[in-house]
Design a protein that fits this description.
- The protein is an all-beta fold.
- The chain contains no helices and eleven strands.
- Strands 2, 4, 5, 6, 9, 10 and 11 form a seven-stranded mixed beta sheet that branches.
- The protein is globular, with a radius of gyration of 13 Å.
Length: 111
C-alpha cells in the first residue's frame, strides 16, 4: 500500500515562500512521475507541477518561474518550492503518484 504524506503548508504573506514536502512509503519515488495539484475553495483541482522518473519537469503557466518541483530519491520525498507567492495561490495542495493521493496541506497567502 503506497502512502503519501504532504507537509510544509501554512500562512504566508504575499511575496513570501514555502516549501512543501511529499513523503512516500510503499514505493520507490524515482520509478514514477510525481505531481503536485491544488484545489482552491469553489474551484476544481488543477495540476501545478510534475516531475517524471527522468526528472523532466512541467509547470502550469500560472506558476512558471515561481515554483520548482524536485525529488530526493534517497529520502523518497518530492518537494515543491514556492516563491513569490500570491493570494491566488491559496489552496489545498496535494501530491499524487500513480492513482494515489496524499491528504493535502493548506497554503494560505494573505497579508
Amino acid at each position: 500500500q503506497l502512502q503519501l504524506v504532504e507537509s510544509g503548508g501554512g500562512l504566508v504573506q504575499p511575496g513570501g515562500s514555502l516549501r512543501l514536502s511529499c513523503a512516500t512509503s510503499g514505493s520507490t519515488l524515482e520509478d514514477y512521475a510525481t505531481g503536485w495539484f491544488r484545489q482552491a475553495p469553489g474551484k476544481e483541482r488543477e495540476a501545478v507541477a510534475s516531475i517524471t522518473s527522468l526528472r523532466i519537469t512541467n509547470y502550469a503557466d500560472s506558476v512558471k518561474g515561481r515554483f520548482t518541483i524536485s525529488r530526493d530519491n534517497a529520502k523518497n520525498t518530492a518537494y515543491l518550492q514556492m516563491n513569490s507567492l500570491k493570494p491566488e495561490d491559496t489552496a489545498v495542495y496535494y501530491c499524487s503518484l500513480l492513482q494515489y493521493w496524499g491528504q493535502g496541506t493548506q497554503v494560505t497567502v494573505s497579508s
